[in-house]
Design a protein that fits this description.
This protein has 299 residues and is of the alpha+beta class. The protein has a domain of 92 residues. Helices cover 40% and strands 16% of the residues. A hairpin with a 3-residue loop joins strand 1 and strand 2.
Length: 299
């Protein structure tokens, strides 16, 4: 069987090359990837934490204020002023506005959503991304790239046995992992955010998937994994009745754990410091494609 490669072009002069895993998980993802062509890449500039902290904060705040201004110019549904990227309660409130007016996955049926103009739909959808960009700035400073396709169907779920066999708590540096496709929050996010605005329906463990993926340009330490599991377990035990009533009788349920699902691995050709510097100067995806030939080399 030929080795398959994923390539991500940044600008016109730089390509990131990844060897695609020969696994059932990667095959399921590839099926979705081959269906993505009619759909445009959302936000080719979804790079996180490649700039200085000050630049990342300015970018996140500009994005979130722009979304709120566009939404409120149509109808003032965002009642609270945005404060700053560190105000998690404010971010939780804004995320709840997105969920309420946008609707959950494949449920864009609210009258407000159906009646508002295209630029307001776009601003509301991007409010979700803006909230996550703010959270990313304050929480981890871990560099990553996210590729999602606008309008692509997100109507299939990962089989639990595949999740069990291929999920990992510690993805490697340069791993390409299937992106969370739900609209809502996982147990990890509930535990971190301590969100008092979220509706019961908006708890959404990892289930659906699409061609969407995230590339992690950092090492996931054991210490980070242990901290995540600790706060999640505490949250689960505090709200055990809530989870049990939804069929999650064990904290270790495969859908609850903060698993990553790797489908490809970066072919490292320069030092990691050099790589991060190269990417920081080219934060725009111009093309994503797959082939079965030998990989490219950087200029």
């Amino acid at each position: 069987m030929l080795q398959q490669y994923l390539h991500i072009d940044l600008g016109t002069d730089y390509t990131l090359d990844f060897a695609i895993h020969n696994t059932v998980l990667a095959d399921l993802w590839l099926e979705r990837m081959h269906l993505r062509h009619p759909y445009p890449l959302d936000h080719p500039d979804r790079f996180y934490n490649f700039n200085s902290l000050e630049e990342e904060i300015a970018r996140a705040e500009q994005m979130i204020r722009g979304c709120i201004d566009t939404i409120n110019a149509y109808q003032p549904i965002v009642q609270r002023p945005f404060t700053n990227v560190k105000d998690q309660d404010c971010l939780n409130y804004l995320h709840s506005i997105f969920e309420q007016y946008h609707g959950l996955l494949n449920q864009q049926t609210t009258r407000w959503w159906l009646q508002c103009p295209p630029q307001v739909k776009k601003a509301l959808a991007e409010l979700n991304l803006a909230v996550h960009r703010c959270e990313s700035v304050t929480r981890n400073r871990r560099p990553r790239l996210v590729c999602t396709w606008f309008g692509v169907p997100r109507d299939v779920t990962l089989p639990q046995e595949v999740m069990q066999a291929h999920g990992t708590l510690q993805p490697a540096f340069g791993s390409v992992c299937i992106n969370y496709a739900e609209i809502g929050k996982t147990l990890l996010e509930l535990a971190i955010d301590q969100d008092k605005y979220i509706s019961d329906e908006a708890f959404k463990p990892f289930a659906h998937y699409a061609p969407d993926f995230v590339v992690n340009f950092y090492e996931t330490t054991q210490d980070l994994v242990d901290k995540r599991l600790h706060i999640m377990k505490q949250y689960y035990q505090t709200h055990r009745d809530f989870f049990v009533s939804r069929g999650y009788t064990e904290f270790e349920h495969v859908n609850l754990l903060p698993l990553w699902f790797p489908v490809a691995q970066l072919i490292e050709q320069v030092s990691r410091d050099q790589l991060l510097q190269d990417i920081s100067q080219r934060q725009y995806v111009t093309k994503v494609y797959i082939d079965e030939t030998s990989h490219h080399s950087h200029p």
